[in-house]
Structures are given as structure tokens and as C-alpha cells.
Amino acid sequence: MDTEVSYNFDDIRPLNNDEVKDAIEALVANEDFERAFRYIKPDLNWNEFSETMRSFKTKEDFKSKLAYEAVMMVANKTTFSLTISGRSRLPKDKQPCTFISNHRDIVLDASFLNVMLYDVGYGMTQVAIGDNLMIRPWIETLVRLNNSFIVKRGVSVRQMLDVSRTLSAYIRHTINETKESIWIAQREGRAKDSNDRTQGSVLKMLNMSGDKDIVSNLMELNIFPVAISYEYDPCDFLKAKEFQMKRDDPEFVKSQRDDLLSMETGILNNKGRVHFTLTQPINDQLAALDKDMEKNELVAAIASIIDKEIYKHYRFYPCNYVAYDMLTGTKRFSGNYGPRDKKHFEEYLQGQLDKIVLPNKDEAFLRTKMLEMYTNPLKNHLANQE
User: Fold this and answer.
1) Which helix (H) or strand (E) element contains residue 336?
2) Which one of 30, 55, 177, 311 is least enclosed by Cβ atoms within 10 Å?
3) Cα(333)–Cα(321) distance, rounded to whole angstroms?
4) Cα(291)–Cα(306) distance, rounded to whole angstroms?
5) b/e per residue, 117-130, with b = 16+ CB within 10 A?
């Protein structure tokens, strides 16, 4: 007879309302937190800000006021526009969903999505965030206060199974019991070359906590793909640099300092136009799959469904078309941009390349890698139409 398995979510869950007061006191007393907030708002009156912080009694207060304001402040300073489409596809009854998206920015993908979902009256999601980003204790306090749950990484192979089961159980519990939506990236970490692919391991993790077949288990989570399109990726030069460092040294591993720099660069620098498309919940497509397929084949088919929804709903900008033609040496998309667009992107590209400092800097390689970042979404979109 099967026995019920119980899980302890304390190490990964967001804070609850009883923990809000202590968390806020810890944050306002932390000099690193103050310093980080001044990056966003240099003229901040810290005493007034601290009192505002202390007025929040619930996570909802904190999220809908301070967190919302901070994200919108970033959007106003670093984007030309922040927009969303596909709102009519959201469940009318606010049924919780598992939003799965491609991943461009460490911090802002989920943050931007949440403020826009809040604006349209759907409500904010819980957010999956890797523990590799918990570089300082105050960062973990802040993200858990802001309704994020922690994904443990870098554990041993022996521990990974238990970690994945607990994470899967937590996500299913959140969707089915506490009735909150979830955001999770389609893969562990960002696709450095923007060649977005849903990892089968993410789907297998989501399946672990179900007690039916994989299709039925995933249908219970109401998977809702989201396509994210940034006109400019502030971290493109850092990603290109990492490609060369890994090419030159296969043993290269990013440091915490690298992650912190990526977080800071992504938040503070220009992104141009940013668009999110709520694609289409995929339960109807999942229901049409042959459940008798071999498991890995079935997982690949489910990943392909998510990928195609994302590819179909990207939004493209002149830089994507210019990059494609530069990379392929063609003029296929010359009708989608003008001379000024081309000149602007070429100057942008060179400016980003100039930021890369390496002792054996391979500019041709780095340029190609950056062009691929802006071309791959368009290539995948075109391949999806064939």
C-alpha cells in the first residue's frame, strides 16, 4: 500500500505574513540593502523609506507597493517601453497557472511579468529563483519577502533527486492548494545565445509530484508559456565574454561576483523596448498527445509544444533583422530596417564589444556570439513557420 509522503518546504518557501515584520527590520538595518536601493533611487531619504517599509504588515502590502514601485522605477529609467499582449487568454476566474517563459534577465523577467499581471488585475505570481543568486543573506530575505521560492542548485547527484521532488511538490501544492500562480524559467539559467529551448529536466521535475501519467500531471499545473522579447540585452557583452572564457578554458566556472555583476548590469542598463506575450495555455495540446509514447519522447514532445508557443509569439525589432543579415551576409530582411537602424545597431554592437576586457580578446568570435543572440529568436520563429 502506498504511504503518503510529507515534505518540509521551510527551506525553499517564501516568507509568510508572520515573518514579514522581522524580515523588514533586518532589511532596513542592512547597509548593503540600503546601498543597493540607492542604485535605483540615488536621492532616497533613508529614514522616510525605512518608516514606509515598517508600515507594511503583509507580503501583499510589500509586493503591491514597494516592490511594484521599484520595478516600475527600473522600467521607467531603463526601457523605452514595457508592454504585454495576450491578456484575453488569462483565465477569467483567475485560475492559477504555471507560467513558463524563455529567460533573458536574471531578475527582471519575472519582475516585469508580475507588475504587468498586477496591472491587468490577475495578481502576482510566486517566482522560482536559484540559490546561486542568494549571494548575500539580505538578498534571500528580500526575495522570500517578495514571494519567491528557492531552487537549490549545485547539490550532489544523490541530493538532486530529493531536491527535485521537494521542489515539484511545492509547486503542485502552490497551484492546487494555496491557489497561487508560479513563474519558472524553461531552463536552468539563461540561454546565453538566446536559442531558447525548454529543458526536459524541468518538465520531469514538474511531473515528479503527480500521481498520474506525465500528461495528466502536467495538465494539472495549467502550463502557460510566455514569450519575452528584449530589444537590447544589457548583459549581451557579459554573455559573449563568458562564451570565449569557456571556449578558452573548458573548466571555467562563473563566480558569485560574475552573477552579481550580471544582476546589476541587467537591472541598471538600457533595454530599449521590452514586450511580453501571454501565448496560449497548452492543456488542449497536451490532451492530444499519445500518452503511450516512450517517456523521453513524450517529454520532448511537451517541450516542443512550449517552445513553439514561445517562438510563434516573439516580438522583433530592427536590431534582430539587422543582426540576421549581418550574421548571414545577406539582405533578406533589408525591408525591415533602414540605414539609420543599421548604423545604430552597428554602433551599439561595437560599443558593447568595447566593454569586454580579456587578455586574448577574440573580437571576431565575440561579435559572432553577440549577433547570434539577436538572430536566434528570429531563426527559431522562421523555422517554426516552415
Assistant:
1) none
2) 177
3) 6
4) 17
5) bbeeebebbbbbbb
Closest C-alpha among 91, 90, 97, 127 to residue 109 = 127
108 CA to centre of own chain: 7
Residue 5: all three cell numbers together: 509522503
**CA–CA dist 109, 184 (Å, integer):** 10
Q: Measured between alpha carbons, how far is 89 from 329 in angstroms, rounded to an integer?
A: 39
pTM here?
0.94
How far does Cα 267 stand from its chain's mean position? 13
Quick: pLDDT tens for 265-313: 999 999 999 999 999 899 999 999 999 999 999 999 999 999 999 999 9
Distance CA 197, CA 139 (A): 28
Grid coordinates belonging to 335: 525591408
Residue 117's nearest CA partner among 90, 139, 95 is 90
3-state SS class at 227: strand
**316-347: per-residue pLDDT in tens?**
999 999 999 999 999 999 999 999 999 999 99
Cα 213-97-168 angle, rounded to 5 deg: 50
d(CA 257, CA 204): 31
Q: At 264, is the secondary structure helix, strand, or coil?
A: helix
The answer to whether the beta carbons of residues 202 and 188 sit under 8 Å apart is yes
- What whole-number distance in Å separates Cα of residue 190 and Cα of residue 195? 10
Instruction: Report whether 191 contacts 369 (CB < 8 A).
Output: no
Rounded-to-integer distance, Cα 56 and Cα 271, Å: 31
Cell reading at 95: 485560475
